[in-house]
Every structure is written in structure tokens, then in C-alpha cells.
Amino acid sequence: MSGYDGSAATRVVVGVSGSLNSVTALRRAAALARRLRAQLWPVLAWEPPGGDSAARRSPAAGLLVEEWQRLAKQRLASVLEEIFDAEGPGVPVRPLVVRGAPGPALVATADREDDVLVVGTGRRGLQRAFSGRVSRHCLAHAVCPVLAVPPSPLESELLSVHRRNTWHLRIDTRGL
Predict the structure, then answer these.
(1) Nearest residue to 123 via CA among 164, 151, 143
(2) What pTM did the predictor assign?
(3) ∠ CA 140-130-156 to the nearest 5 degrees?
């Protein structure tokens, strides 16, 4: 196959939240889309603070929902711009903002058997028990292949620095 076929049916759908894990998954998804000559569908799922019932009780519910939707679009655009710069990922991109819980939103978007769904797997260690619900939901319910991307190796280093700063511990500069 020579050149890019713009009518390619394969889509690489990836969950994007702006977290380090989702950025790692986004980079992996872009590389996979290039190899497969597929479209890249970065998806940011959002829910109103307090859930749909809390949003409906608000007197200005319509205005709030519009603002939350706008903020979600802005966040997705800024993540894509930061990761890919002006060059882009090298494949057609269709960013999508979906109102709903992330797991079900990603599964509903990647609804074709020839899609590939890419998700970050969450955190390592003790915090893993409380994270990873999105990836587990996608692995259990998707009709397409799911690529679960492990956390970036930088995550443990960033957590270590954060912990050190939180506890005001000195940094050993002898090794620098």
C-alpha cells in the first residue's frame, strides 16, 4: 500500500483527560494510527460536577452545561496543541468531546469491530486499587481491540518529587 488512503475505515480512539497517563496513551495512539494509516479520535469525556441530577437542579443549568462543554473543548484542544505542536500527529484527527462517564463514553465511541481503543491503565502501586476503572470498563465492554498503555516511567519519579515537596524533605544534591 503506498500513500495514505483517506477513506480508511480504521479509527484509533483514545481517551484524553490531560493527565500524564492519558498523554502517554495519546502518544501511543498517534504512533499506532500512523502505523495503521488510521484516523486518530482523541476523546475527552466530561460530566457535570455533582452529576446530571445536580446540574438539572441548578436554576442556570443550560448556561452551566454550555460553559462546561466549552471548557472541555478548550482542555482537549490545549492538550492536543501541547502534545503535537503545529505539525500534528501525521494522521487525520477528529477530536471529540462527549458528555458522560469516561468508560462508557469511550466504549460508545469505539463502537466498530475494526476500531482500536487506547486507554491509560492508571497508577502503579497502592493507588492502583482506587484507579483504573476506565481501563477495566473498556477492557470488559469494548467490541474492538483495546490497547491498555501502562503508566509512563516518569510517573513514579514525579510522585517521588511531589512527596518530597509535600513533606518538605531535603533533596540530596550530591548526585546532581
Answers:
(1) 151
(2) 0.78
(3) 105
